Amino acid sequence: MKNKVLLVFCLTFTVCFLSGCSLRNSFEEKITSDIEQKSGISMDKTYREYRTNVLKGNVKNNYYFSKDTPVIPDDTDEMVPENQARISFAQNSLLTVHYYSDENRTNEFTSPYDDFIYLNPGDSIYAAVNTNNNGQPGVFNFREFRIYEHSENGKSLLSSSSPGEDGLVFTVPENGGGLDFSIEPSGQYEKFRIKLNDYYTDDTFTQHSLNGTWKINDQKCEKDTAEISSLDSYVVSYEYNPELFFFVSCEPKYFYQDNSKIIFSQDSASGMETEYSVELYPYITTSLTAKSNMKVEVNGELYGEYKKGQIANIEKLKFGDTIVVTNSRIEDIIYDKDLLSLRETDETFGIYTFKVREQYGDFTFNPADYKFEHGTIEFRYLGNKITGKINLAAGRQIEYSALKTDEGYWLPEGDNVITVSEDAEETKKEIGNIRFYKKQLVTVNFPQPAAGGTIIYKKDDRTVVSQSEKMLSGTRITMTYKPWAGWKQKYSESSYIVSDEQETQTVNINGYDVNSIFEEAEEHKPNLIISANRNIGSEMKFSLHSSDTDISGLSWDRKNKYLYEGKTGTSEGITLSLSNASLPEDQMVKLIIEKTDKNKKKYQDIRYITAIPESEKIDIYTDAEIKSSDIYYTDICINISLEEKMIYIAETPENATVQINYADTDSKKVLQENDYIDSDRMIELTLRPEKGYYLTGSGVINNIYQKTMKYSDYLLSFEKTDNSHPRKKVCTLTLDTEDKFGKVTYTLNGTSVSGVTEVREEDELIITYQLEDRNYIIYKDFISAMHDLLTKSPYERSEKIKITPEIDGTTIRREDYITVQKKEK
Predict the structure, then answer these.
(1) Most CB atoms within 10 A, among 189, 525, 583, 724?
(2) Residue 167: left (phi > 0), alpha (psi -120 to 50), or beta?
(3) Burial class (CB in 10 A: 0-12, 13-18, 19+), 391
């Protein structure tokens, strides 16, 4: 036996030697290849990765892998397919993100956060993003998507950008096969802007900016606009030089004020911006000349005494200051009538009372003209008590407080200021509305408009969050209006006084119901077109209702192109009612609803009506869209037709499931058994194998077959589709590695496996055996024996295991494929 083998070996060697270098090289390559094959190393994952990195130049000094080598993160045992990229998605509680595989954003990834998705190089991901503040304060907006690549060194930022109009987020790079990526949406709270304005107004009504010191939370502001976090509360203060200016007015009402500093009440950021203003004025200087000796008092204090002919120069005067002049004789006083007004004259004693007038006066106020029940009011202007007539310009503020109050009553506290209007009668009315209220608790309801926006209610600078609350009558409720995109507020009134006449009352706006506070801008109202196919006939009648439209008696007429065309409000949606006709048993009414937004993107919905009379409500916006989205619809087209009534009957193929989705609507609704459908509908067929099976045939991706087609084509072709995509059994095998003579290993498609393993018919499962007990040999036929002799592997053997449904559930052992026998002596 040995002699025969030796002879064959020698002959083979001689042939190779005589054949020259080319044959010798080929022979060496053949031996190397056979060694790798018999040893199983060519199927080893680590060895294959090593060879790949050698070819790429990533192996240095025989052990170092460069940082560019893609490595699967350590936090998962799942392998990334070499020809695909694995993508995961991070969640942001303040952003609602929908991810799609197409530019039209119709094929949505249904559960992107539950697992990884796998894409081929060149595939793209698109997204649509909505903010979701979840009732949190502040204005939170989407900012960008951050794309990270993961490796053994952690994650590195690959790119960050906002998607364009097509919503493109990420395209898998051409070298992205086998790599791991994640997509993280990020946003930010918009900064809350505070505009700051300090000024004085000259005689020509021109405003001049000043350079006082503004502070926010004790931090000096260098500019006239400051930004803070929209989640913060803040306190604004203002300081000025009291030697040069005096205080005139401010908006909003101050919390504290002295002759050099103003502090406003603490507030919290609400909306996008607010404004604080302070009006100052340079001190006024005037002169008086008398023909006899005179004494001058300013605001009750002696200013000076002057001899006949002297001029009294009086400085640092403010609007409303009182100057009292006492003459030794009754004579006229020379004074500047543009600055001073003579209010009282006592010729008996030669006493003259002047008031420093404003440079322009719109309203004459005299406290004596007003009486109040249940108490006494004290009025002040620029910190001084008003005791007589005073001329005030529009915008000036009269402060008031309770001087005396009857038992059981109170004057509401807070912003007790009357702002002088350009209309004197309006100012008188506002002063006359000041009153003392009974000290009694009443229930106040805080309604929100049905559409158009929201109202933020505040009481004593505290935001009211409940729908109703008990509070003292006389309490002032202030309102801030936040219109939806495309809406505007109709009225400027922003406060409500709780009356003492009703135990339960609802806030209104100067008598108006809150539902009327907002109105939709004309440009936000879409153009509505309703058309009907000829087959609908002229007997069927239609009625249309929306927030600003009510029309009935519409019907098809060959002379009219449309049933209706015109602008329509959006807050109540569109209700289309059908009447005056009956439907045959085999027919139904089909409504095709197409909406076009300002960016010319179209959205489609389809409805069926199977009985008449009937009404169909069509919402134009979702709740989220109408409240916050800046995308609005410019056109809505509704087409009405009669169609054959078809009923969907689900197919039940063997070892597979069928899912049908509507492909021609944005909802992508899944059809259920007995749903209505017509033959022209576009549907998406999804064929999935049942557990334990896999799908074969063309067009199968990730073990799923999908195709979009007309429903009529689906009815005609499903049987062919079913037959051309056979389901095959996934076999479960137990790969036994125990052997008393040597070592047993298995590779599945090049990857080492053992134990319970799932395999498919197309897989390559190889058993490799290495005999370790040299008292035994592996039984081989002649060709195998010669091969082993040439490759110097007489104690190794590999066999390919054929996979058929019959081996499902069996245990694979060495002895079933490779025989070991004792050596001959």
Answers:
(1) 525
(2) left
(3) buried
Q: Which residue, 434, 375, 366, 368, is CA-closest to 400?
A: 434
Give residue 79's pLDDT.
Answer: 61
Q: Which is nearest to 227 in space by CA: 197, 267, 191?
A: 191
E strand or H helix at 783: helix 782-790
CB within 8 Å of 758: residues ≥ 6 apart: 730, 731, 732, 733
The one-letter amino acid at 428 = K
Between CA 348 and CA 329 the distance in angstroms is 9
- Asked whether the beta carbons of 611 and 619 are under 8 A apart, the reply is no
Whether 374 has a pLDDT exceeding 80, the answer reads yes
Give yes or no for a contact between 754 and 47, defined as CB atoms under 8 angstroms apart. no
Distance CA 607, CA 447 (A): 35
- Return d(Cα 639, Cα 563) in angstroms, integer: 10
For residue 661, which of 725, 706, 601 has the smallest C-alpha distance?
706
Q: By C-alpha distance, which of 696, 643, 650, 707 is closest to 673?
A: 650
**Measured between alpha carbons, how far is 487 from 452 in angstroms, rounded to an integer?**
6
Centroid of chain to Cα 740: 65
Residue 318, helix vs strand vs coil: coil
- C-alpha to C-alpha distance for 262 and 254, rounded to whole angstroms: 6
Of 145, 99, 97, residue with least CA distance to 119: 99
Core vs surface per residue 447-463: b (16+ CB within 10 A) or e? eebebbbebebbbeeee
d(CA 166, CA 100): 11
* Weakest-pLDDT range from 75-89, 157-171, 374-388, 604-618: 75-89
Three-class secondary structure assignment of 154-218: EEEEEEEECCCCCCEEEECCCCCCCCEEEEEEEEEECEEEEEEEEEEECCCCCEEECCCEEEECC
Residues above pLDDT 90, as percent of the chain:
50
- The pTM (predicted TM-score) of the whole model is 0.54
Q: What is the DSSP string of 360-373?
A: S--EEE-GGG---T
How far, in Å, CA of 454 to CA of 447, rounded?
A: 9
Which has the closest alpha carbon to 498: 464, 528, 549? Answer: 464
